[in-house]
Input
Amino acid sequence: MAKNRYFYCLFVMNTLINILNFTPRELIDARFDGAQSSILVAVAVGTLFIYLFTRVIHKFPGQGLPEIFGSALPKLLASPLIFVYAVLWYMAGTLILLSFVDITLRFISPDTGPYAIMFGFLAVVCLCSRIDSLSLLYGLEVTLGITIPLILYTIVKAIINPDFSWDAVLEVMTHSLHAPDLNSIAAATFTFSGYINMAVFNRVFHGLKLKHLWILSLEGFLMLLITFFVPIGYHGTVGIERHVYTWFSTADSIRIEAFLIERMLYVFYFACITLSLVSAIIQWHVGKELLLSLLPSPSGKPKTKLLQELVILVLFASGALALMRLDQYNLNMLGVFLQHIRWYGEMLMIGLLFWCYWVVRGRRE
Amino acid sequence: MRSLRGGIIGIILLLVCTVLAGCNFKDIDRRIFVVAIGIDPGKEEGVFKVSLKLAIPQGDVTKIDEKMLILTEESESISEALRRMKSKVEKELDYVHCKTIILGERIAAKDIRHVTDWAVRRRDIQSILNFAVGRPGALEVLQVKPPSERIPSNSLILAMSGQGTESPFISSVYSYQLMRNIYENGIDPILPIIEAQGKEQFLIDKIALLDKSKIKLVFSPNETRLFNLLSRSNLRTNFPAHIGSGMYQYYTESSSSSYRIVTNRDEEPYIRYTIKIRAILEENSTEEMITHHMLKKIGKAGAAELGGAVKALLVKIRDSGMDPLGWGLHYGARHWNNGTEMAEWGRLYPRLNFQVNAQVEVKYSGMIK
Output
């Protein structure tokens, strides 16, 4: 049984990896028309989602999404839904891997072939996503313990740099008075969507109780501000639109004067790769568990289960390899599309969970 | 069961290993490191002359004897020149440790945006590399080899980064800053000028002001120092103070500067600069002992002199029409009428006046009175 603090770990993981790719890009694209107000809306919406979700999931101690849907919805409806969610989770993990292959190629090792990097990542992710949920949570906690100090160091170092252009940040602040923009909201709510992994991880939680919700919204809000404003301080209000991986370009612009390595890029890359691999592992674990629940359960036959997992993971891996043909712009479009779908999916899931709760309670009475 | 799982893991790991061996990773003894790049205009119009300064890796650190090599190639494009140069060396050229890009003065007088775009776009070139203008040309600057230097191009790196000498005349510009200021509205880029003086010495004490693309104005060393005083805090330098026929020099222990753009309706717009300096007396041309009263007087005289010099510099910047200190961006950042603020600023700028409030506080008279 997992303690409540692992829920916070899942949340923090998402707020940290949102720095990576799509969230800053979408927000920065809308910096002159509504990113700032979108951040505020996203904080409110994200907090509301977490609140509703934890309230309803509390009523289903020790049950994952398949068990809840299975008990309350007709099978004809439950199975396709579970399948769609599984694909969604799988795509989320794949997108992280694809972005990271691209980042590694650009910033770390231009000479290595993309497929070699992908194979390395896939080996780690496929092997680790088979580990049971509870162990994954423990692993996540340890990883956060290693990476949070590094990411904090990067952020502090970025902000205290005398060459950080506060005027550029203030200039973008004066563009705040705009109606929020849907793309930005969808991208920004990703910061708050770490809770959604509870769809499977709730199996190891028995009666999740959430204390101090405001800490989560404050943390998410601060991370969104940092995600959005720090790259602008480094690359200017206009120049920023020319950068592809804004946060990696920013880390590349920070110099460590007194340390073994001079470029902050490597520190930041190490923290990010660790975190995003763990995050991809968790996403694929959820995707795999959801798909497994659709297959006939091999009661007492570990060999069949192994075979099923193997088939799923091979499918996952070959899908990821096939998606490597996308170029930079296609990948970005897919990312934005997925951000939207994910957000609507979250809404739908919370709605469905309330519906399930209503059905189950009706039956009991 | 156990053995099956172990077997699968083993097979996958083996597969991964074969893939890794297949990629073209090169060991350090098959690489040669580019430490500085110089870009000049070529003989013909529209042709770049690209020079690379290469450091040759050596094993034993204690017995290092500086070995370097300069390659030069002319081509219409920078990348083409670099590819051609690959056939001039037997090892793979590695740009990861490149810390300086020198633009020949004639390139900087024409257009720097092409080179900047290339340097930022290249994925293996850092964003924290120094950009500078080379005089008379980039190649001449690359060829300078000070006798005190032990690692190729290290003298330039040390001088520009402030890790070695802390000269008040040197200001460094990283490529991300150059890129930022080229595209930003309301701030114009600057570049330090490195002059080659013979084969063994260089001089970095001037700044070039650019109007987004090319050099428009070059500051004298004194103006450069004042500019650095305004653009960064805690500049370590000395300034003079004259009282009667006596000349005093004070050393700035700490310095800071801030400004406010004041636009009242009933008076002309002006910028009020406040400069605060805490200083130590360093030189005294008279034979008199320094009293407390004298210390105050030196501070006052120094402040008046500094204020006058800074004001002259600010007027010169305004008359040049460029904005190296980012006043326009500062103005925009404090006004919410985003559609019109830059046009407003454009009308304001030529009419700007300046008030300089310099406060020099000489705290000590040094070791003797």
About this structure: The CA atoms of residues 72 and 167 of chain A lie 55 Å apart. The domain at 5-364 of chain A is CATH 1.20.1740 (Amino acid/polyamine transporter I).
